[in-house]
Each structure stands twice: as structure tokens, then as C-alpha cells.
Amino acid sequence: MTGLPLIALVGNPNAGKSALFNALTGARQKLGNYPGVTVERKAGRFSLSDGRPIELVDLPGTYSLNPTSPDEQVTRDVILGKQQGERLPDALVVVVDASNLDNHLRFALELIALGLPTVVALNMVDLATRDGLELDAAILSRELGVPVISTVAVRKRGLDHLRTELESMLDGSAGKVRASTDQLDFDGLRKEARRIARAAIVRETPSRRMTAAVDRVLLHPVAGFVILLALLFVMFQAVFSWAAAPADMMEGWVTALGETVTAILPPGILHDFLLQGVVGGVGAVVVFLPQILILFFFILMLEATGYMARAAFLMDALMARVGLSGRAFIPLLSSFACAVPGIMATRTIADSKDRLTTILIAPLMTCSARLPVYGLIIAAFIPARSVGPGIGLQGLVLFLLYVAGIVGAMVAAWALRLTVTKGQSGGFLMEMPKYQWPRPQDIVIGLWQRAIIFLKRAGTIILMTNIILWVLASFPQAPAGMRQSEYSIAGRIAGGIHVLVEPIGFNRDISLALLPSMAAREVAVSAIATVYAIDAGDDEDAMNRTLGERLQGRWSLATALAFLAWFVFAPQCISTIAVTRRETNGWKWPMFMIGYLFALAYAAAGLTYWTAVALGLG
Amino acid sequence: MRLTDLPLRQPAYVDLIDWNALSASDGQRLREFGLCEGASVEALHHGGLLGRGPIACKVGRMTVAMRRNHAAAITVRTGPTEEEDA
Ligand SMILES: Nc1nc2c(ncn2[C@@H]2O[C@H](COP(=O)(O)OP(=O)(O)O)[C@@H](O)[C@H]2O)c(=O)[nH]1
Ligand SMILES: [Mg+2]
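Above: query sequence and magnesium ion SMILES. Below: predicted holo C-alpha cells.
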């Protein structure tokens, strides 16, 4: 590793460590993993005023050096120099929340007592001011025996001062460390922290506490719940209504690109490959970018404003009924975007059985990769009718699909808790952060990162799967009068799968899409698009119809609904399976997850199909 | 009275915590949240549309949420906190 001086950011959760880390290192960040544990190592570089490079690590937040979860363990081990794959930091930046000094100072005292060169970043002074607190950093510094710098990480205030202080610290010209708190026990530290906090608070004017006032509404047992549901509902309506215009525009680009390919290339295999395998297939997925970004926009906003913890609070009573903690709601809600970060976010759940249950049901939350599938089928089979003021039928169906996933997850959690993850529930103990108006830049950066990840997926895993599918679906060439999609290798494999899924109403198109979409759910859409393009061949008329129009001609409503029901449950995502293996340290649980989810998917699709047929929709 | 019975938005302080009723790690987490004998508490919200949900309370300057079984282990007295600098 590098021989650069290492500085670690430590402090309570929500003190602003990550914000400070971002402000100091900018784009120069590297994400990795500590060996042997599944905790992310977030490191970056920044330069001191004399240009000296420094390596900075952002450690997971913890309330004390007494860890209760895997990521808190890492924090402790790093600052004690015991973490494999990490050298002992040369200095610590202890980040404390100025508006919650008593509590944060206790941990700060514990850290200072370790004797490493330490600077305290008195962060969030803007919020303290909002709460009517006026603090004196000099008093704090005198009492703590280490330099204290006031910062506002999100406004980049105090950073230069912090750099200067770190510089003299590393030069050894500062850093008299006081160790008088060495002998204090927890209670002693708490009292000392309280005393110091009182000394440092020079004025306290009672002020209207925005957070308390907002919470009166948002945490109200009835109103709060209604608002939570309404928020989720608006989110799903927005996914359809806001995305319509940009999605149409992108669809136009894809069509134009296809026409360009036709114009430039002579008819032949290369032309077909590009048009059907690449532009048609990947293009069919890429047009869902606007919908995915809208979904992420809502989730990022919920997180950044501090609402997520409130949602967990509101949901806890319900979650408790199925043996889960309200805390599990946060990873589950992020799983609406993608199960992979959702499953990683379960690391904050201390109880191992709670955590395992949450991991096992996370794939039931409707992730954004299902949107292309849902979007395609809903747009093709559900009329764009209004069923009430501001309520579109398509958005409603989408909402119901999400509800089906949630209900499925709750039932699954309940059943798992009675069987494989039996045991006492871990409970719900959680800090409610203050409300904040998110900074637009942060949201934009978050969306940008998501867009890149999605496009990368489209350009790699989805493209590759699709190319393989195109080859398998194009050869051998069908003799005249036979359908290419049935005669080809892929068609014959699909024939085998078809036998299994025919009872639940799946046609050959779906059978063909099921296998490649194990790689990623969106591939179902690109696979169907590719196969239809191949079948259409040079038929101008067929090529000019949209994918949705072609589906309408070939699928019954019952089949379409069964296909939707399948995707609510089916575990079709290699990345999710891989991250489950990593987080549970073995193949046992991912295998279990695959098995139970496929069983559920099969049953749900079957029930949907048979019911629909019985209602005359077949 | 127990924290579960404390009326909303009534200043109180912790009289006694029955640590034995809490698991070691839950007890530790509560301590880390600043709950201890003498700490000022104020119940802010009772959650749960269906049945009894968690309780959100102010502990010092922090808002924390806990389930009722935890809150039941905490005995409180109304009034301003008694713990001035010890
Ligand atoms: N107003 C204000 N908000 C801040 C400040 N520092 C961080 N935040 C916000 O506080 C929240 C928690 O910060 P984060 O860096 O994630 O905390 P961490 O858990 O310590 O990494 C985020 O929403 C930040 O944008 C600050 O100095 N002032
Ligand atoms: Mg952080």
C-alpha cells in the first residue's frame, strides 16, 4: 500500500464524517473492502497546504469502542491498529455534531484517550445555530486538550483551518495529548462530556425546533402513515407520468440509430447483428433510464432529508408483527432501487437473525431492474386510462405490483421467522436524525452515479447476454415457413423450458427470455426485443411496430399478467445472488433464497394465470 | 412511572433503568444514546397505527426511538432533571 500518512475520520453515526470526507477528497475516492469482513473501506486523498498528499479513510460510524455490529468492529480495530489490511492511522479527525455535543463528546473523549494525535472537527455548527446554540471552540479545545476546529462540512467551511491543524499535527509541533480520561468508565466519560459541553455552550436561546414541529405531523400515528403511503404512491405515479416525455425522446433516438445502421450497412449478418442484437436489444432497456432516475431521485431525497428513519419508525409496529425490526425498513426501501446496496445496508442491523431474514426478503422489494419489464408489459396491456383524479390506471397497476412484492416479503419474513431464522426478534433502537434540506448537488451527483451504473450494466452484462442470445437465436437459419425463434438453438432450449412453464401460461417467447434474464431482469425485455427483431427479419411493417404493439398481437392478457406476477418474485439477478453469498459467507443462504423465490414465482404466476383464464381473459 | 406511561411532551427525567430487563447489547445502545439515571427525557411520539408501536423520545439533545419493551424498563419522574453537574 501507499506510504502516505494515514488519517482516519471517526465519530458517531450522522456526525458528518462522510460529508467531511467528500469535502476534503472531492472525486479522489476509492471504494474497497477490508479483507475477511464485508465492510467497505472508503479511502481518498487530499493535499495539505504545502502540497503533501495524505490518505484519508472514512470509518463506519459508531457510538463507542464497544462494537455491536460488523462495521462498528472495523472502526474499533482500525483505530487500535488491529485491522488486517490497514495500518495504524497517524492521526484521527474526530467528528462531532455541535448540536448534540453531550453525546458526541463522550465518544470523542474515549477516542482522545487512545493517545493518537487527534483533531476534533466541531461539525454542523450551522445546525447548532439553527437550534439556538452558540459554542466556543476555544473553550472546547482547552477542555479536551486537543485542537478543535469549527466546520460545516456541507458548505466546506473550516476545511482550510482543519488542513493547517493536521499539518502541524503531523509535523509533531502540536498534539499534546491529555490522557486524564483514561481511567474513566462509561458513566464517568458521560459526566465529563456533559460538563465540557456545558462549558463550551456560551449561549442557548430557545428556538423553534423545526424537527420537532415537522415530526408532530410526519410521525403522527394516522396522518404520518397516510403521508408515508401517499409519498410512496406519488413516487410510483411519477415513475410513469414524469418519465413519459424523456422516454419517448430516447425511444426516438434508438429508432433513429437503428435507421442509421440500416442506411449505412448493406443487408447482411453484421447489419442484422447490430440492428437486432445491439440497438434493438440494449436500446429497449436503455429507454427506461428516466424511470429509474425518477425512482432514485425519490429514494435519495428520502434519505438525505432524514425522512427514512421516520419511515422506519412508522413501519416498526408492522415489521414487528412479522418478526422484523423497523430498521429493516431502510435496507428494504433502498432495495426498491436495487437489492445489492439494500443487502449491504443490512450491516447496520445488529441482530444476526434479523439481518439474515432481511437479506432473504430484500429481493422481493421491486427493484428498478424490474421497471423495464413492468413498464413494457403495463404499457402494452393496461390502457392508459384515468381511474380517478390524478390516478392513472397504469400507475395504479404498478403500485399494486409493488404492494404485491411488499406483502410477499412480509409473509415470507413471517414464515422464515417461524422456521429457518427462528429466534427472538432483535428489537428496534434507533436515532432519529434532524431534518435537513438536501443540497441539490448531492442529489445530482447521486443520480449521476446511478445513471452511470445503469448504463454500464446496459453496456456490459446486458449487452453480452444479448449478444450471446442473438447468436443462439439466429442460428441455425430456419428454412422458409418456419419461425426463426423456434428453429434456432435458443428456440430449442426454450422449447425445453416451455414444457415446465406452459402450465402457468408462459408462451415460447417468455420461455426464451427466462434463461438469459437470469443475468439481470432487464434482459427479459432486451431478449424479447431481439427475438422479435429476428423474427421480423426484413418485414418493414413488423419492424415499424413498437415492441409493445407486437406483444399485444402475440400474448393474451392472462399470459401478460402471469409474466408480471412471475417477476414480482423471481430471483433473476446474478449480482443479488453474489452479494448474498458474500454477506452470508457461503452458498447455503443464496441457494435457499433462489429456491424459495422461484417456488413463489411459479405459484404466483400460476395462480394469476388460472384466475385470469377463469375470468375469461385467456 | 414507566416511560411507556409518560404523557407526551411532558419534561421528565430517568429515575431508574432496569438493566436486567435488557439484553447486554440493547443496554449498551441505550447508554450510548445517553440514557442513564438522571438523564432528561421527553416522550414525543407513540408510533403504530395498528397496535402499539415504538416510542420516540428526546434524550438530552437527541431523538431516539425504542420499542415499548425497552421503554417499559425505564422508570421516569416528571419534572426538570435533577442531575446537575455531578
Ligand atoms: N447542515 C449541515 N449538515 C451536515 C453537515 N455535515 C453533514 N451534514 C449532513 O448530515 C447528514 C449526515 O452526514 P454524513 O456525512 O452522512 O454523516 P456520517 O454518518 O458521519 O458519515 C447528511 O445529510 C449530511 O449532508 C454540516 O456541517 N451542516
Ligand atoms: Mg458515513
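Strands of chain B lie at 12-17, 40-46, 55-59, 62-66, 74-78.
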